Amino acid sequence: MKQSSFYQDYFGLRDRPFTLVPDPEFLFWSPQHRRAYSVLEFGVLSRAPITLLTGEIGTGKTTLLHNLLSQLEDDVIVGLVSNAQGNRGELLQWVLNALDVPFETDATYVQNFQRLQDFLIDQYAQGKRVVLVFDEAQNISREGLEELRMLTNINSNKDELVQLILVGQPELRDMVRHPSMNQLAQRVSASFHLNRMTPDLTMKYIEHRLKAAGGSGKEFTPDACLLVHDITGGVPRLINQLCDFALLYSWTEETGRTVTSCMVQSVVDDGVFFCQRAVEREAQA
């Protein structure tokens, strides 16, 4: 089935405005997202040892991260590690793999560490610098985070040979703030926490996504937008899921080319959209 057979033609849209796949064209620059991006950019350009970006699931961390990585100059070597887990030896293998540094699976920790150090020194000699990005870093143990901190001790004179960007859920921020992680916290030179969007920003977010997809931005009534915020709590990923189904419902019901609060509520009542906040809201009704 072609995408055009869905609701796009009905609403005069060239694309689905609320897909979950990160797309730079749909990036909504709310004030806090601009600040978060500025902090990420500052962390890289200022050669901060560790930059920290946290926020709840679906607040746009990964989208901002990919946008930043696409803007980096050619002299920056990036190693992206997602969902890294395991002991310090396995974590080091994750790092080597992300940087495309060959290693033997039966090599000792010391041998792999030497491989990494040689690679970093070689890149530095070529006028390049290395940035290691850990997405979903809340899955790394405290021991693993301490091991990452040790990597920032690899330096040449006054220049650090590797920078870390740690991206994760609020638990990551709590881990870094723990008294046992004091040495790690002292290496964090730039940090930002993304909060959920307010009702006003949720309305602007929905309008922005619709316009980016070729619409007028007014396909959702103000009441529908406020209900979307109430149900999702202002989390972008949840907003996308709910709005996508609301457009689909409006198309199938042919109730007009405007999504009302009744249509949004129908999506929730039918159990098509599921999130904890929606369940709690239904229980209180």
UniProtKB/TrEMBL annotation:
This protein is called what?
Answer: AAA family ATPase
- What species was this sequence derived from? Sedimentitalea arenosa
User: SMART domains in the record, alphabetically?
Assistant: AAA
Q: Name one Pfam family in it.
A: AAA_22
Which part of the chain is the AAA+ ATPase domain? 47-190
PANTHER family assigned: GENERAL SECRETION PATHWAY PROTEIN A-RELATED, PHOSPHORIBULOKINASE _ URIDINE KINASE FAMILY
Per the UniProt record, the lineage of the source organism begins with:
Bacteria, Pseudomonadati, Pseudomonadota, Alphaproteobacteria, Rhodobacterales
Q: Which residues form the signal peptide?
A: none
- Output the Gene Ontology terms for molecular function: ATP hydrolysis activity
